[in-house]
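Sequence in, structure out. Go.
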Amino acid sequence: MLKVFSRISRRRALQGAAAGFVAFGLLLWWLLPLGDEPPTGTITFSTGTRLGVYQEYGKLLRTALDKDMPGLKVKLVNSDGSQENVARVATGNADFTIAAADAVGTYEMDGKPGAAALRGVARLYDDYVQLIVPRDSDIDSVADLRGKRVAIGPGRSGVRLIANRVLTAAGIDPKKGVVPVAAGIDTGPDLLERGKIDAFFWSGGLPTDGLKDLAKHYAFRFVPIEADLVAKMHAQGDATRYYRATNMPESAYPTIQRGSTVPTIAVSNLLVTRKDMNVRLTEWITKIVIKSRDGIGKRVHSAQLVDLRTAIYTDPLALHEGARRYYRSVKP
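Output:
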């Protein structure tokens, strides 16, 4: 009886070991790069403003790419933000970028150069519109911005696009109803702290380093952007369908929000390239974007939301063939 039991136990142990080996093999397949040798060359990645999430994400992604694709040189180039990023990739002045879906949709609908060549690689994470004022400000709603000095983002930023639409929805002419200031997350916090502006718009992943740093030494608060304004933005047409009403979670900036959520707007960010980008190179980059999620997410919290199940939804852009190949290869 003991010998029989021992044979059964050994058999089960061997079966368990075999199953473990298969699981380990699948794990290696997931983690190791595609193919025998990684693609080489040089690509230009258009990021964003200093202290913005695009810039930080670009730096961390370059590190991840360097690990698995050591022969690929990634050149990072700063920009105003989404609008400039889309234009750069569409016209061949950059190879990859991050841009908000509304900026991509606007570029396409306006029929600008190279729009038809744009392709999606992955849906990444959501941007949240953040309207910041001093803690003791008398501004309690978007309508209260009338006549105020308001930073609405650099000229070719996604912030500018959204801020103009929010102000219009509130019945304020973005050019005449406020004193517009072309400042973003890199300069807006300092201008607010020095009393040079009354409020500033920012649209980015949560939390944004520029605001985390400001919260350490300056008392500010967020002005709510209510759902009725989002509905009015949708009525403006164009690419406003990409905006959705949501709440900024209380955990975004705990010392500022003090346990309260903030009504606002969210819009998805896309990793963008062109149709003529090398298929195998794009396939590799797509894999590493998904693979590096947790590592990048330790530094850029919003990157934790990158998900294989939702990455394929790059509306308004069709998927690049390289990205499509990767997603098909890992489809359950």
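Check: The two ends are 43 Å apart (CA to CA). Residues 1-14, 16-34 have pLDDT under 50 and may be disordered.
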